[in-house]
Amino acid sequence: MVSEGRHITTVEELRAVVGEPVRRAVTKQRDRLDDTDRAFIARSPFQMLATAGGDGTVDVSPKGDPAGSVHVLDDRTLVIPDRPGNRRVDGFGNVLENPHVGLIFLVPRRSDTLRVNGTARVLLDPPYADELRHRAHVPRLVLEVGVEEVFTHCAKALLRANLWEPEQWPADDLPSIAQMDRRTTADQSLAELEAYYSEENTRSLLYRATPP
């Protein structure tokens, strides 16, 4: 890594630049979910899950399902169902080595977000699995998160990003995912990859096993 500028190495140096957090930023942190948190989670169809392996390697995985698919078992426990994917299981693998996780919950049109930090475990065939059924898919694996910290983030980040403002979105002139995947997938043609990554095919695989 090549960079210029002063390298900050201590919390004291960092605080000298940014200052201390405002009181409400500290007092809003809680150790359990309340009814408002439950309502926010129930309306969230998309989450970002951060994990870290035993060697410190970090992963952030997107999680998406119809709103209400993340279940709150009690004020200290929530559950995320595992759906068919690419079978890399990077996040699950990390949790087996290091149970500490972070979650960001998003709700469409809402610019504030909900953060939940805690410790997780991977469960096989939990007794409540059928409650997580969607389109006949009952997850065999779930991520059960023990809540340790929960607090809201204000709207600044999403407002800066204009995330929910279509007229502010950049032009979609990037290479397709098939073109990007072609860089490392030499045994399939671009046409084959375009067909595989088409929205129609992707939607057909949302709740059934992905072919190898």
The secondary structure category is alpha+beta
CATH class of the largest domain: Mainly Beta
**Taking all residues together, what is the mean pLDDT?**
94
Q: Kindly identify the CATH topology of the largest domain.
A: Pnp Oxidase, Chain A
Total helices: the number is 8
Largest sheet: 7 strands, antiparallel
Could you name the CATH homologous superfamily of the largest domain?
Electron Transport, Fmn-binding Protein, Chain A
Oligomer: single chain
Secondary structure: helix percent: 25-40%
Intertermini distance: 36 Å
Number of E-type strands: 7
Overall domain count: 2
Low-confidence stretches: none
What is the 3D shape? Answer: globular
> Which CATH-level-2 architecture of the largest domain?
Roll
What order do the SSEs take from the amino end to the carboxyl end, as H and E?
Answer: HHHEEEEHEEEHHHH
* Spatial arrangement of strands, main beta sheet: 2-1-5-6-7-4-3
Summarize the structure.
This protein folds into two domains: about 10-160, Pnp Oxidase, Chain A; about 170-205, no CATH class.
Topology:
Blueprint: H1 11-18, H2 23-27, H3 35-42, E1 46-52, E2 58-64, E3 71-74, E4 77-81, H4 90-97, E5 100-106, E6 113-124, E7 141-153, H5 156-161, H6 177-181, H7 190-196, H8 199-204
Antiparallel strand pairs: 1-2, 1-5, 3-4, 4-7, 5-6, 6-7
Structure overview:
The chain is of the alpha+beta class. It has two domains: 151 residues, Roll (Pnp Oxidase, Chain A), CATH 2.30.110; 35 residues, no CATH class. It is 25% helix and 26% strand. A seven-stranded antiparallel β-sheet has the order 2-1-5-6-7-4-3, covered by helices on one side. A hairpin with a 6-residue loop joins strand 5 and strand 6. The two termini are 36 Å apart. The mean pLDDT is 94.
